[in-house]
Amino acid sequence: MNRSKLFSAVSLAAASAMLLAACGAATPAPTAVPPTVAPAATAVPATAAPKPTVAPTAAPAAFVGDKLAAPDCNYGGSMKAIEAVDATTVKFTLCAPDPAFPQKITGSSFNILSKDDIAKTGGDAKKIGENPVGTGPYILKEWKHGDSLTFTANPNWWGGAVANKQLVIRWSKEAAQALLELQSGNADNITKVATEDFDTVAKDKNLKLIPVEGLNIFYVGFNVNTPPFDNEMVRQAFAMAIDRAKIVKDYYPEGSTVANGFIPPSFKPGPSPDIKWYDYNADKAKQMLVDAKFDFNQEIPLSYRQVVRVYLPSVDKVAQEIQAQFKKIGVKIKLTPKESGTFIKSSTEGKEPFHLLGWGADYPDATNFIDYHFGAEHKQFGKAFPDILEQIKVGATNSDVAVRQAAYDKINTMLKQHVPVIPVANGYSAQAFRADVTNPIANPVSSTDFWMIKGAKDTFVSVQSGEPISLDCADETDGETFQACDQIFEKLLGFKPGTVELKPLLATAYKANADASEWTFTLRPNVKFSNGAAFTANDVVASFARQWDASNPAHKGDTATFDYWASYFGGFLNAKK
Amino acid sequence: MVQFILRRLFLLIFVAVGILILTFAMTRAIPGDPCTAMLGEKATPQTCKLFLERFGLNDNIVVQFVKYAGNLLQGNLGTSIKDSRDVTDILAERLPMTFELTVFSMAFASVFGVALGVISAVKRNSAADVGAMIFANLGVSMPIFWLGLLLAYIFALTLRGTPFQLPPSARITAGTDLPSLLKVWGMEDAAGLKRFIVLMLSNSVLFSSLVQGKLDVFVDTLRHLILPAITVGTIPMAIIARMTRGAMLDALTQDYIRVARAKGLAEFTVIMKHAFRNALVPIITVIGLQFGGLLSGAVLTETTFSLPGIGTKLVDAIFSRDYPVVQAFVVVIAFVFVLVNLFVDLSYAYLNPRIRAQ
What we know:
The structure holds two protein chains of two kinds. Chain A is of the alpha+beta class. Chain A has three domains: about 1-5 and about 65-135 and about 490-575, no CATH class; about 140-210 and about 430-485, Periplasmic binding protein-like II (D-Maltodextrin-Binding Protein, domain 2); about 215-425, Roll (Dipeptide-binding Protein, domain 3), CATH 3.10.105. Chain A has helices at about 5-25, 100-105, 115-120, 125-130, 175-185, 200-205, 230-240, 245-250, 280-290, 315-325, 340-350, 370-375, 385-395, 400-420, 480-490, 535-550, 565-570; strands at about 55, 65-70, 80-85, 90-95, 140-145, 150-155, 165-170, 190, 205-210, 215-220, 255-260, 300-305, 330-340, 355-360, 420-425, 430-435, 460-465, 495, 500-505, 505-510, 520-525. In chain A, the strands form five sheets. Chain A has a seven-stranded mixed beta sheet, sandwiched between helices. In chain A, helix 13 (about 385-395) packs antiparallel against helix 14. The termini of chain A are far apart. Chain B has helices at about 1-30, 35-40, 45-55, 60-75, 85-120, 125-140, 145-160, 180-185, 190-205, 205-210, 215-250, 255-260, 265-305, 310-320, 325-350, 355. Chain B is about 75% helix and about 0% strand. Chains A and B meet through helix 1, strand 7, helix 5, helix 11 and strand 14 of A and helix 1, helix 2, helix 3, helix 4 and helix 5 of B.
């Protein structure tokens, strides 16, 4: 073979190999992490147990209830046991009192899946999404990845008939484009209206604007360990130097409110109306800074991320406004926008002494705002305040609302005193519907109840801002994914439409013991999954157990991080050390 | 000729290695990580530790590259960090949309661009020439996303209720029933190359609707393609028009044109057979280069029109730091660009016998 022929042959072989590689012809190498091997069993095996970590308890004749229990509470989490007492009763035992437990499990991460389907799919989000089996109003007809999700009515739904024969969820990142879809009649609903479009929608007779209460907070945060913010008087002066009313008026949509504390207004227990936050007083702020021997020559960096959120719809403009307001009292602020991920990481680690950030409610309880941000483990604002920690303990471990409110009243007073943050605004958002839509409604914390909203045509089209990631919401965190999951699956409890008031879904009643460390739920009878299987307490146990127990074969989901479980209930059982 | 092609293919290996290293390094150079990008303010250090471990992102960067390259050699483009799906599947779903859009916009740009350029050159300094060139300059100057929104506004809202109304976004009308070819052909369990190809065909809605005999869906898809194709194709059309005009003007002043006219050939024959054919080399070059530009233009246009192509997915993947998807998509775009350039080079030889002889 001469040189050029050899050269040609090598070239041909190499090009063929590359083509094959590009086409994915060969066997793919697995990249998923294999399931962890279970250490010593922590499930309570009352009878001869099959391999799964969920083991049956002493069995009544007709129903064998599953139970999963931790051997003790030293594993790093706050869940102690989950037990199917009978077919329609499930009991959660916690390591410590948790008065917000019912609110926590309203999250879409705690949707109930069929025990059989969990076993069949191995808890793999991809497989669950291929043929999701839920008890909700809709069943998935088709997921055209990148394009749309189509749902049809679930004939087995306990709630009866749904308003629309077919529901289509689509997505568009561009708010202007989504609005065009609505205006042109190609969509019946858009789930997010850009702040600048509120007026356009409100004035369009073909559309309806439905404002959504802002269960969020935009705040200016300090690290109280870092000079000059280690001086409480400086922080108080800064609180007085910001004209929060002007910010809300100029940069927030209609309905948004000036925050009077860190907890959103409608939470119970929540804010303390009698405890007023500092009024804007530039002169007094300047005098206090002089008294605190503040160095007016220094330039203070104000860090933030350029990410639009409901709690901060005009990031740069608000940052510039704050800079301008401080300039009036002689304080030099340097704006330092940062990449979102880098900023979140550094602020969480307490490396942003003066920053802008916010928080949206995961569940409507004060613990989601106060405990998370001002608890002992949170480093964002520097050292924790012992007096606040003491009251957090009272508020988070008592089921009496009045006692809890008293604790949060004290916390609200202490936050005003210590000023680790300056609460600025509770931002409103809005959904928009075509005017011919009947019963348009938007929920402040949960997904939209499309089953009760009737469009003009048989197919109701909703446009949201992103594609769902999967249909296994146990391991997801974003609202767009929750919106899709919640059409198919249900939780034990939900919210009354348009409110943060609890309502029964798969559970018709619940009760706690005296210290709120045991929660017993009575399940709705005669509920069936979309595949016709009966819903029982074992489905609830299986749905929670796959998240809690890291050695459970179904502890997979999408990324196997189960963020909401970790956030609400701490560590996983049988977690790899 | 065969040796020339094989030599170019051989050189592709080095281009491929370069592309792989570059894309890998560039995706890792983006600030932030997938955990904080996806979870935002809800990201805690504990969660992120688990998350990064799960995807091997805590490994040394060299180890990560070796694993990535190793998987790639086995035909495994990896798994999306964001939604745990095979990147190969995602590619097969997204490529057909972008391919359809690119072909339609390229056809629009080439046909109208060349026509405008030829008319402009033949009717030099006439009102038609000035009008065509003003139009071309406007086309080049217009931002794609703005043009897209403007067209959508005009054709979806202003012309609503008229026969000229066009959908402002999406690939097909919501709720349209078009089953996957995997299902239709009973190949749901297919794997590897077979699955990739059927998925590609299935996601080419034009092809799939035709195969399934659904003409209404075919027409609906075409209607959805009109505005995006015009949006993507406008800038290339303007560039092609200007280039065609220049090349034609140059060709029309050559001696052989004078000879052709002196022979008494019809003017149409002189222009199309003698001038246009000789002007084609630079035109083909610019069309080839614009093809690569179309792929990047598709990123913006697909976002503006909510089309499920590689552009929207790439933007989404970059924002969520979904490294495997970004790498795969950039590599594919780069390869397409390289292959188109190769094709353009080969076409020179076809069009110009002197190059062929060399």
